[in-house]
Every structure is written in C-alpha cells, then in structure tokens.
Protein: ATP-dependent DNA helicase RecG
Amino acid sequence: MSYILDSEIKFLPGIGEKRAALLEKELGIRTFRDMLYTFPYRYIDRSKVYSISDIDSSSAYIQLRGKIVRISSAGEGKGRRLIATLQDGSGSIDLVFFKGVKWIQGKISPFKEYIVFGKPSLFNGAWNMIHPELDPVGESGTSSWPSTLIGIYSSTDKLRNNGISVKVFAKLQQTLLQKVSGLIRETLPQEIISSVKLPSLTFALTNIHFPKDLRSLDAARYRLKFEELFFLQLSLLRQRNVRMSGSSGIFFKKVGDAFNWCYSRLPYELTGAQKRVIKEIRRDTVSGRQMNRLLQGDVGSGKTMVAMLSALIAVDNGYQACVMAPTEVLAVQHWRNFERSLSGSGVRVALLTGSTKARERREIDGGLRDGSIDILIGTHAVIEDNVVFHRLGFVVIDEQHRFGVDQRARLRLKSTEPPHILVMTATPIPRTLAMTLYGDLDVSVLDELPPGRKPVQTIHVTEEQRYRMYDFIKSEIKKGRQAFIVYPLIKESETLDYHNLEEGYQRIVNYFPAPEYITAVVHGQQTNENKAYDMRLFAEGKAHILVATSVIEVGVDVPNASVMVIESAERFGLSQLHQLRGRVGRGAEKSYCILMTGYKLSEDSRKRIELMCSTSDGFELAEADLRMRGPGDMEGTRQSGLAFDLKISDLGKDGPVLAQARSVAAGVLAEDPLLESTPSALLRAGLDRLRQTGGKEIIDYSTIS
Structure:
C-alpha cells in the first residue's frame, strides 16, 4: 500500500491538474510531502487587533476588525477599482482592490464583520489599504484562521496571477494537514526522539505551518532542523565508513631521494602547520586505505609547498602525481613553482592546458604513458580521455570548488588502483559549512603564515581621497613596487562592468602616463593569449600597474606587488575581498589593501568593510560571511553544492543543532557502521528520501575512491 505523503499533489482538494503543474514548475512541489516540507520563511503575529484611529505613519502590516459599511466602484476598464469602507467605531478606512474586482465583489457582504490584514497608506489625506486580506469573523468572534501566528510562504508572480495567493497556499496546507491527520509516519527512531527530547513529526509539521504559540513554533523548528541535519550528517559519515572499509589504498612505503633533495634545499623553514599536515598525509599513505583529505589554508599559508612535497613521496615510491588547477594562469604558476624548486632533482614535471601545442601534447602523452613524466600539472585538459598515465598514485585538486563531481571522478578512472586524493582550497570555510560540505573527508588546516610574511594593512577610502591614493601608489612604484587595481565583475552586468573597467583604465593611464608608468589590463572579455601576455608583463615586473576584474582573485602570485586597490569594494562579498587582499603581502615588504567605496553604504556593506579593516583572519571573516549572506551566496561554496537544498536549517545560525545532529549520527554509526541491521531500516529509508529529494545523496567521493 502506498504511503499517503507520496501521493501526487493534484489529488489534494483545491488543486487539480492545472494548479499541480504550476506548483511543480514554480516551487518544485510534486507530492504531498513536497508541499508539507515547503515551510513559511517568516511569521506575522496576528494576535493584536488595532483600532483604525491608532494608525499612524509608522504602521507597517497591521490587523483591523470592523464592519463593511459601504461598497462602491470607480474608474473604467483597466483602471476600474473596488472600494470597500471598513468601520470599527473609532474611525473608517477604505479597502481598495484593483485586481479581481468581480471575484472580490462577490465575496464581500455589506454589514458583515471582518478581520482585515494589510499595510495602511495615506492617499489624499485619508488612510487606505491596497489589496488587504479579508477574513470573515466566525461564530466564536474570532477569525476563521487556525492560528494567530501566520506563516508567509515564498511565492511567484505566476502563482499569484493564477489565484494561488499566499493565503490560498496556506489554506491548501491546512487542507493537506487535515487529509493526512493521523497518517504521518515517524522518520526518526524513538530512542533518538527521546534522547534529544524532540516532539513528534506530526506535531512539528502542524506547528511549523500553523503554530499554536511561539513555544510550539520553536519546538517544531528544532525538530525539523535536527532531522534535516541529522540525515545529512548520517549520509556523510556513512559514506566515510564505506570508503574506509571498502577501499584499499596505495602503500607509499618510503620517503626517498626526491623528497629529501627538495626538502634540504628549501629557502625557508616550513611552518609548524605545514610539517603537521605533511605528517597527516604521510600517515594516510601508509594506512593501507585511500586518502581523501581536504587541505584548507588561508591565502599565502603554503599549500602549494605541502602539495609538492606530498607529490614527491608518490614519485619516490614509483608513482606519478597530477595537480589539477581551475585556470590556466594558476596551472602555469604551479608549474613554474614546481620547475624552480625541482630543477636539478631529476624529477620531470610537465604542463598540460588547453593552449598546449599539438607537438608538445604528443610528447607529454608519450611521457605519461611510459612513466618518464613524474608530475603532470594542468587544467581540465588533464582529465581528457586521451590523457593516460603509466601509474597514477597521487592527485591534487586545487581550488576544488571549481570542479564538479564528474570531473573529480574522471581523474580516479585514470588509475587501476585508487590514487590518494588531496583537495585544496584557499577559501576559508566555516566549521559548520565544512562539516556539511566535506563531512566525509579528513580535514587538515594550515593556520600559520610562513616566516617573513607581514600582515596586509587594510584601509577604507572614498571618492574624495582618490587622487591622494593615486599619489600613494606612485610613491610605492618609486620604491620599486607594483599595484593591482581591481574592478567588480557582476554576472548580471558584465557589459556595464567592462565599461567601468575601461573608464578606470583610462583614468589610470592619464594619471600614470607612459613611458614612466606601464599599465597592463586583464579582464574576462580578452582572448586567452592577450590575457596571458598582460599577466606575464605584470608578473615579470615589466608593468607597474595591473588593472583587472576579479579574474585575478585566485592564484596570481606577484611577490613584488605591495598595493591592492579594490574599486566599488561594497559590491564584493567578504570572502572575495579577502581572496583579493591575499594577492599582496606575498613578499617581505609592507603591503596595503585599499577598499574604495561610494559615500553611501548599506548597513551590510559598512559591516563588511569594517570587518575587512579590523581582521586578516580568513576563518573569522568566513564565519561572518556565512552569518551575513548564508551558504548559498558564499563565494567558493556556490558551485560546490550543498548536499541538497536545506529546507529549514541555516548553517550561519544553526551550528549547535548541526553539532548535536552530527554527534547523534556518529553514535548511531558506532553501533552499526554501514546501517545494515534491521533496526536501521528507518534510517536507511531516510537516506533514500535524501537521495530522491536532493537528486543525490551528497558530493559522492566514493565515486573517486
């Protein structure tokens, strides 16, 4: 017998085929379950009734109670409007309707009492309400609404234009709850419900839509947040158990000549954090299991050196290593760093990108197949089908959020044995988000800067200080330094931003005239060749200033650059501002990040700018970014994909719920690591639902293990 929550939504009274198709298209609602798990995003307390005489200019949405004493119409054709005058003993107010006039006229009865809810506005010296909600007062003298806390749901113009207003949607939820009353099955084992002190699922679903009171709403929210995060963590931790139990990893039995040769010639002492992470990676490679490790490190913390030394352990054991970077600029930079550090070691490093010429490609293909190339560095080109390794044993994926699951999986297929995998990111990820995105990976953090790195001084300036700022750049150039000037690139307005950059470039070359000053320019509308030429001009010190869009955010390493100017800094998120700031301060000289903004800033923008000026801790900024913008908007996480849409949880605020959910999930798996026992059937069913509703269980690293 099928479960009632799996019923198609068209079978709910009041919906039918046409509305069902619309709900699926607009909100993704296909079943009763989808509808029940579409939650209000806010609530309005309608327990208070105002008198009409209490209305003033500060009134937002308010509730009135009174009788309709007059109904009239005005205007013609599209300008026709219906006016119903409401009176409550203290005064009167006009309720004005421009749409659905005939329908509303048929619903309103003169001299009947109504509860009216809407936003008052002043017109010709008198108060009115445009398209308020009207609800007839029932026999008990109250509104017929089932709760005084009214949930407000997300909607669309198409839904509203087809008669599914927020109020209609809520009424449909009420109908649905009545239809499934007594038939909702519990999704969590009773032991968990009791130990965490959760209300029943029926209570939670009823009170999330129609709260009895604030306490019931809080209990419902906690139950639903806990359940959502519990199954997410259960999925991640179970996958880790599957990987740990099922995959035999390549055994790197020694640290040999290549590693020791490079280590002994390092120009500086590794930080304690770098040494710790290399030991963690070394432990993984002798464990007999495949490594799947995430390396988080703030900009400039030395991730590349860790990756190179780890790759050399693979080479010492007769295996090849591969480093995949998201852009050609970053791939070339890695290749140069590896070549410089390994010159004379006998380790052969090759670079493969979309720009690699056919003859070079043939040589690289041959070297990979016969094993004479030890380390391959490249872009997406390294995962093409015709790239075949002799013996791939170690894979590094840099700025991993820019690669999809399929691309990572294709690297796995290039080896008969599962290679060890190190994924790296310079985007600091808050703990709550890391637990959600990468809960099945082992995590290492580089939390120290290499010796000699000085913190970057961050300064906020406005337009009136522009030319003083230009004079400061001139003084830095006279000291032999270089400067970045970055303009925002907003997807919705690429053309506009291109013109902003053009204007800015013109202003720069006028103030910094050639030949005394050379200015290079890099933006997304250039060809790869032109972009690479200008970037190289700056990287080699032949250009004093690089005017660019945020394409230079990741990976550009110019130690001589001491100034980063970010134009329209208010248009960037915290994480992106921090990434851009990380492009300077890479040498031994004092460096500066100058945040240029307009005079008027929103409250959020002001907070971001103040935070940037007060701290250089990327993790502190990432936590703040998560609180302010949410996980879906955070730079660096947008493409990595949360496991599935979080219906009710907020990772910026629900860290304690997530921690409890993870702890309970870990306890369950300690007793039944793969959820194979009969008592775990309910939990297996929950994970199946997660796969169905999210389209995938989670980022599935088992595909590359």
Observations:
- The first strand starts at residue 42 and ends at 45.
